[in-house]
Amino acid sequence: METAKLNLLSRFSIHVCFAAVLGLFFCSLSYGADVYWTGNVNNAWENNGNWSPTTGPADTDYIYISSGTVNFSASSGTSANLRGFRQTGGALNISGGTLEVAQLASAYSSFDGDVVQTGGVATINAVQIGSAVGESGSYEVNGGELRIGRASGVASLYLGANRQYSASGTGNLTIAAGTVVTRSMVKLGDATAAGTGNFTVLGSQPSQIGVGGANDDIDGVWHQHSGSSLIVRFDVGGCTPIFLHDNSNTTGTSATFESGSLLDVDHLSGDGGGTWTVMEVENGDIIDNGLALASSVDASVWSFEIDNSGANGKLLVTAVGEQAGFDLVVGNMKQQKMRYGMDYERLWYWTGGLNSSERDLIAKWSAIDTRIDYIRVAINSAFELEKGDLDFSAYTNKIIPLMQEMKDANPDIKFFASPRPLNEAISGAAWQPYPRWVTGDDGSGNFDFDWQECAYYLEDYIELMKSYGFKISFLDMTNEWQSTGFSGSRITTGDVRDIVGYLKANLDPADMPLIVAPSAWNYSQGASWIDSLDISQARRDAVDIASCHNTNRTGTAQQFADKVREILPADTEIWNTEVHGWKSTSGENETTSFYYMLEKIRAGFSGLNGWLALGTTNQGHCYILNPSGTPTRNVKYFIFKKLSETSNYGNALEILLEPAQLSHTAALIKGNLMTVWVINQGTSDVPLFITPVGRTISESDVKRTRWTDPSDVEGFVTRESVNSSGALWSSIPGESVCCFEVLLDPEDHPYTIIQAEDEDDFSGLQEEQSGDDDGTLNQGYIEDGDWARYNDIRLVENSAMRFRVARPAGRDDGWIEVYLGSTGASTASILAGTPVGKVAVPETGNWQEYETIEAYIESAAGDYDVVLKFDEVGSTSGKSLFNFNWLSVVSPEPTVLLGDANDDGVFNNGDIGQFVNALLNPTIYQMMYPNVDPNVRLDMNGDGFFNNGDIGAFVSALTGG
């Protein structure tokens, strides 16, 4: 009994205390005043003279607007935290600042006038639009952000409805741009009471439309009743979808369209067909109890489908007609010539856990499969820490074996040497790329660089590499240890001048590498160092390749490239020899951060390699992973491989027009293969038309490789269609990288197809029925060492050959090598020669899914017997490699008439106007004359570029002077 009494008293005490607390809380809670808009002074919200009382709005106040115009702008700043809003008329314009109407959790704000938001942030606890009988309210979002909370545990947004479930008027929400998110349900109309709600989405410009996503705590719900409409207008990008969030990751989300609900769809601008996602319900279904197209919709053009087959329910709308899309226009003017490399400057993971065959495999992946130009290797300070005291193991332990593996894999590979940090050889040393007897380091990080000692050191290194059988083609002078941007005596432009002068005087000319400098820590430092070259011609002449890193992100690639063009000759190559940021330490998306490469191509960089090709999974910069043996390739490797194998030794192309919806684009050309790269960092798909100016796409569909999920390393391959006007159409998924391989016809030079089965002699091949479009036979069962001979083939100088091939996934890599012989020569003697062309056969999907590839042919003009030899890369498996359907010879473009600016076939005074136009308005000129490359046709002084330097030669050629 005593225990029971104590428990009872205890409960009574708690109840009394809790009631007291509640009493104190509600006694202290103030709802503020009712404040009315008068507009007695002007239209500015922040002018208290426009309100009654004239103290203006304060925290917990309730706002009333019945007439007039109210402007809430950036000048209004952040409003008081208001309790609610009641608009019965007038207009509210929100262009900036922060409007806060969320002080009381149970309060609703009603809008039965007009609200237009073009900027700023409006945070409103719950919203009713058109909630009164006979009234009409509209809220239009053309920018900024509208965030709607939730009152009394029900809906966030009522359109033509209200929380009392009583009769309402007409409520309109229109979203043309900006962001709209709600905390919970959106309700249009009511099941039993009068009222009409219209939710309108205008095109693809809105950044986000989220239901249930405002506070990330409540699932999104959509409930649309009879007579209410979801109105969607589609622009070239489609529409921004309405996304219902499952914030608790359950199946609590849903969208319900009651009988009599209407869907009103049309084009916002232009026309065109397509299928677009209008609504998506995360982890939930769309319930269709009778959704129908509005009577004004042309049902012969428009239709809709509710798809609940996947995890997310979707409302899809389709329009018949040719696809619409944004324009990406690629010019015909060749820009810088490209080359790529892979970085093996540091070999922490080269031998650890790798057996001989695995090292061979990495060498193949690096030096063969990517078709790169060079391997970056280290000049190791540990070789000569003290002057004259040589430790050969600094090279023979890892560096020389790696170089030999790479050269064995690809005898044509070049080596780019870069001085390696001393602090990797001596613990506690200050960062410096040379031994202390070169840098003058006294042990405390105070430097006194000696260019003469550095020149001896580099001369000895080059001669040492030569003794091992390696030529150093490129030599980095500083590796981020240039004089600008740092204190102390580091490598200046004068030092480089003197070192280069010594090397040229003492090395065999064939052993002299191209000098790469300054390889600065960031673009700003690099540009400053390049600027100091302007002191003398001798300093400028010492630098063959202008280079920079972006280890630190200060400055931009464009700024560095512009400085190089200002100071150095126009044909100077610009390299980034450590491209940082592609995931790496940036932590960005591993696929879409490929933009670090594309931005350099667009800026005019011609040489690119990442930093450290080989590493582990926690090193985001690596392409090849070797945690403890059994190396693998990640998504960066396959994206880089696609870039390099399709454009190494090719040229960048000018982008004449690109949509803002894509974050980065680039185009390149190698022979007649144009590759177009696009990155979509947004979440919505971007429909795209790709049009090459002055060229014709030679195939009816084009290969596209797409990367989205980094775990799908090789990407997804599809074939994208070319429309009747010759443009390529494709929808670019959100958060993706896409590469298009577009084979172009050589202009005015048709080619003749030679069927593979029309060989004059062969070894090891078998004919079979082809599944290719031409319906002919193909050569199959091709194994390593097989060949086919075709006699009496006429070639012009520097022709190209195309091959139609098919290769399923999982088959070993293979090549087609081209050998030429005189008419009647034996096949054995022809094959004993050197191949004049070579091309790798890519995976196409299956044995009868064909693609066209192309090889350059280095030969003089003449009639030849051609032997094609089919090789397997690496050790032979004895298995079939690929199928071969036809070949063709492609002639180079004809010689152009120098100075013929107006493209009329003659050079005379009539060319003056367009010559000037090409100088002053190059983009307009390119669009007027898409078949003219000014760097060729108008390069009057023969320096490889068209610029102001050609004016004098143009005038002299015209006047005969």
TrEMBL record:
InterPro entries xrefs: CBM6, Cellulose-bd_IV, Dockerin_dom_sf, Galactose-bd-like_sf, GH
Source species, domain of life: Bacteria
Pfam families from the UniProt entry: CBM_6
Ranges where the CBM6 domain occurs: 752-890
Listed GO biological process terms: polysaccharide catabolic process
Keywords from the named record: Signal
A GO MF label: carbohydrate binding
Cited SMART domains: CBD_IV
Protein name: Carbohydrate binding module (Family 6)
Residue stretches spanning the membrane: none
